[in-house]
Amino acid sequence: MADGPAASTATADVSPHADFEHVGAVADAVLYEGYLLYPYRRSSAKNRVRWQFGVLFPRDWVEADGPVTPTVSGSADSWYQRTECLARIRRPDATVRVRLRYLQMQRKQVHETGPDDGHRDVPSLRTADGSVHLTFDEAVPREAEVTLRLDERAHHGTTVPVGAPGGTDVEPLPGDAGRVVRVREELRGSVTVTAERLAPDLVRLQVRTTHTGLAPAPRTARDEALRGAFIATHTLIGGHGVEFVSLIDPPAALHDQVRACRNEFTFPVLGGVSSLGDDPPTARVVLSAPIILPDHPQVAPESPGDLHDAAEIDEILTLRTMLLTDEEKREARATDPRAAAILDRVDTMPPEVFARLHGAVRSLTPSRPAAPPGERPVAPPGERPSRPVAPPGERPAWWQEGGDDGLSPATDTVLVDGVALGGGSRVRLRPRGRGADAQDMFLAGRTAEVAAVFHDVDGSVHLAVTLDDDPASELHTWYGRFHYFRPDELEPLEPAPSDTPAAEA
């Protein structure tokens, strides 16, 4: 039952919304991020602590040790998620459609048949056919949908119940050696969608997902409490006759409205493929995930399938998986069906598919002739000292030996507001909105020292900096770990008083 205007719900058998299909691969990567990590075996230490993103527990259990405050990373366990974003109304009959996606934990317990035909719990069991069965926690994907008409009543909101039923499935094992029992606990929650009219053609949407089920005992271990939790919870927001505004790079006229949006335990970004010339950036769908993503995130077309670790490189994980021993592969296959699917894909991967994993160059920008030998280049803002354009059929000079002669990161400079910035220059960080790394946004206004100027093969320039207030800055400099910013993201500072030579008496 729903309270509020024009509410509806739908389960996982509903046909996918066309706009949601554009972000399907990315949304699935979010759903299964960290689900099972290389080497995909139950015995691996990294697979003993699982499900760190988007986990919603009952409120009483979460607050048993004190209230939880949303963190920068959004990784703290909570009982709710809150997403707010801006949408422009393009039609008088506009509607918003919200799809909630999550995992429901499923306990897979192996039972061995005893001498009296009874059963006892065992961690693993090998049957007469040589197959191995392991006790492990699996997960079942779930979805629900909510629709809201953006009429004069939309500000009252719509609340609908969501969740998944509990259940038990029993699978007999060959030769009556035992059985596999899969148990799921019931999940209960709610999704509330409201729309606040900010202008005749602009609304602030709020989507709040809350766990409403019964809490386990206060001292219940997290591994046990996960049985009744919403896992990897995230939402897709689309609709009919609406267009969403970027919260990362909003139009200047909407900066204040964007700053007023409150997002807790989620990070909403524009989904789908970015349109060329889309200024300011907009989209017909928003992906609100428990992990930080850029606008218009995409899965590389070369990737043949999910490896459950978006922080890694497909080629590296594939090579490592190829090197697993036969015994390790048997354990991985017995651990989880998704692990078995990864091994099958790697074992049967055609050479041409594997070759594509080595990397791809999306574009190369022609460049101008380099500075004369012996002259230190000073690049204009946002550019690098150019290189000659290679004739058709030949490799660009940049890719040839000696193609980077004349560049010196430690001594090169780049002009910013008429000031030549290079190693030792002091700057204030001003991350730009469009295209900025979301993590860099938290460094806005901080002061830093430039360590080096790096020129990229695509013609751009990045300055490596260390933060003034970072107690580990010397250590970072020692092993070359820096923050990187474009020239237009830096504001030159006057030399600090301690850097200015004392006046002669």
Keywords:
505 residues, alpha+beta, globular, disordered N terminus, disordered C terminus
Folded structure, characterized:
The protein has 505 residues and is of the alpha+beta class. It is 13% helix and 31% strand. The protein is built from ten helices and 25 strands. Strands 1, 3, 4, 7, 9, 10, 13, 15 and 17 form a nine-stranded antiparallel β-sheet that branches. It has a six-stranded antiparallel β-sheet with strand order 8-11-12-2-14-16, with no helix packed on it. A five-stranded antiparallel β-sheet has the order 24-23-22-21-25, covered by helices on one side. The longest helix is centred in the C-terminal third of the chain and has 11 residues, at 337-347.
Strand segment count? 25
Q: Overall 3D geometry?
A: globular
Structural class, by secondary structure, is alpha+beta
Radius of gyration: 27 Å
What is the residue-averaged pLDDT?
Answer: 83
- List low-pLDDT spans: 1-16, 71-75, 367-371, 382-390, 496-505
Summed up, the helix count is 10
Helical amount among residues, as a percent range? 10-25%
Terminal Cα span: 84 Å
Percent strand: 25-35%
Please render the helix and strand layout as text.
Layout: E1 9-10, H1 18-21, H2 24-31, H3 59-62, E2 80-89, E3 95-113, E4 119-122, E5 124-126, E6 132-134, E7 136-149, E8 158-164, E9 167-172, E10 178-184, E11 187-199, E12 202-211, H4 222-225, E13 230-240, E14 242-245, H5 255-259, E15 267-270, E16 282-283, E17 286-289, H6 314-322, H7 326-335, H8 337-347, H9 351-356, E18 378-379, E19 413-416, E20 419-421, E21 426-429, E22 447-455, E23 461-467, H10 473-479, E24 483-485, E25 490-492
Parallel strand pairs: 18-19
Antiparallel strand pairs: 1-7, 2-12, 2-14, 3-4, 3-7, 3-10, 3-13, 5-6, 8-11, 9-10, 11-12, 13-17, 14-16, 15-17, 19-20, 21-22, 21-25, 22-23, 23-24
